[in-house]
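WARN retry 2 of 3 for item q-0093 after timeout on previous attempt; input resubmitted unchanged.
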Amino acid sequence: MRSVRTRLLVLLLISTVLLLVYTVRDDWGRPLGADYAGPEGRPRPVAQEPVAFSADERATIAVFEKAARSVVFIASSAIRRRPWSLNLFEVPQGAGTGFVWSREGHIVTNFHVVYRADAITVTMADGSDYEARVVGIDPDDDLAVLQIQASRDQLVPIEVGSSQNLRVGQKVLAIGNPFGLDHTLTTGVVSALGRTIKSLTDRTIEGVIQTDAAINPGNSGGPLLDSAGRLIGINTQIVSPSGVFAGIGFAVPVDTINRIVPELIKHGRVIRPGLGVSLIQDSIARRWGIKGVVIGQVAEGSAAMRAGLQGVRINAAGRIELGDVITRVDGEPVEVVDDLMVILDRHRVGDQVSVEYARDGRRREVTVTLQALN
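OK item q-0093 returned
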C-alpha cells in the first residue's frame, strides 16, 4: 500500500512540473521559446546620416592615412647551429617598426631592432615582403638604415619635420606594430623635452622626446609624428617595470636622425669627431680617487699629440706616471668618459675645442682641433 502511495506522489509531482513548464510565459505573455515577431526581435534601424567627425578626429584620420604608407613592419631572424647534429636552423630574433626614408629603398629603424640579425624581412603597408640588407648602423644613437629592392611607387618617404620648436603639451601620434599588430595608431602629447637615455653601448643619447603616446614592444623604430603628420622622432624606449607601456615613452629627436642617417647611407657608419686618444675606464679612475677622464694613450700623429696631451708613461726613474686628466671641455665639466663623448658629439670634424686638464698637480689648458675617429 505504501509503494502505491509513493508512486502516486511521484506521478503527481511530475505532472505538476510539466504543467508549470508549459504555462511559464515571458513578459509579453507568450510561451518561452516561441517565435516572436515584435520590434525587439529584429535588428535596430541604422542611422542614415554619416558620422560627423570632430575637427580633431578628421585631423587624426588624415595624419594616419598620409603617414601609414611610409611605415613598415620589420622582422629579423638569426641562424643557429644544433649542438649535436651541427645542422643550421633559423630562429626569430626580434620584431619592430621602421619608416621609408627615400625612394631608393632606404628604411630607418632602431639599431636594437636588427641587432644580431642574420636575416631581415620588411613588410610594406600593402602586405608585400622584401628581404632587407643593412646599409649602416649607429649603435651609440640606436639607429640603423636598411635597404630593400622595391618599386619607387611603393616607396613613399615619410615627411620630415624638425625637433627644434617642439613644445610640451603639443599633440603627437605614433604608428607602429606593437606585439605584431601592424599599423597601430596611438596618440598623446609631448610630455617633456631634453631627456637623456642610454643606448645598447651605454652611451648617452641627448635631447630625447618624452611622450605618453602608447609605445609597446614592436613599436621600436616607428615614427613619432606631429599633428601635421611630419616626423619629429623615432620611438625607441619605454620605462616600465612590467615591460609594457606605463605612460612613459622616449623618442630620439628627428634632428639627430636627419644628421646621422645621411652619414649611414654614405659611409655605413657615423664619422665622429675625437681627440685621438684612448681613455682609462671610469671604474679604474674611481679606484684611484680621480675626478675626471684619464688619458691612457695618445695616438701617433693625432690631434691630441699635436696639442701636447700625454697618456700614461714611464718616467726616467722607471716609474709609471698617470696620463693627463681631462676635467673640462669648452668650459663644461668632464667627470666620466660619457661626459666627454656627449660634448664631442655636438661638434664636427675640424672644430676646435678647449681642453682643460691636470698634469703633475697643475691645471693646464690647450686648444685641440678635432679629428675623424676610425
